Amino acid sequence: VNPSVSGHGRYRAGLGLYYFEEEIDEFYLVETAAGSFKLDANYRNNTSAVFSQLTYDVNDHLSFTGGLRFTQESKAVTPDQGTLTHYALPTGVLPPNTPFFTDESEREEDISETTPMLTATYRWNDEVMTYLSYSEGFKSGGFNTRNIAPLPSIRVFSPEYAKTLELGYKA
Fold it and tell me: Which residues pair with 28 in a beta bridge?
């Protein structure tokens, strides 16, 4: 969407929606000299977002753009990992069908973030443009289900956040 809202074409606006859904069934059979085990997990990921952007052209050379994005993510995993045969660890031998996670119930993590973007653009002529831009973003966390010895529960890793300041030109 990019309509001219008002101001004799000096405003440009955009609005969008995003949706992503994913289900993964993962299974690995691992055979070692110490014994055999399985790394098995079911993952479910859902992401939805709404975003908008507004640009104001001050004149033919200078414009300002601002935008916002609201993102909501849900990630879940159900593990089913453990020994298939006798499995030797430095601390002793595990019998067949020993789970690697004592809590194998579904684990879910939810995150919601609002991230902004601001840009100032100056067009020197039809062939040269400079800009200054600031934006924020994030990458959601998740689960580390790769495990080769018993633990109480799945390890979770946190989201990553980024702030970017960019100065550049296009010619």
Answer: 39
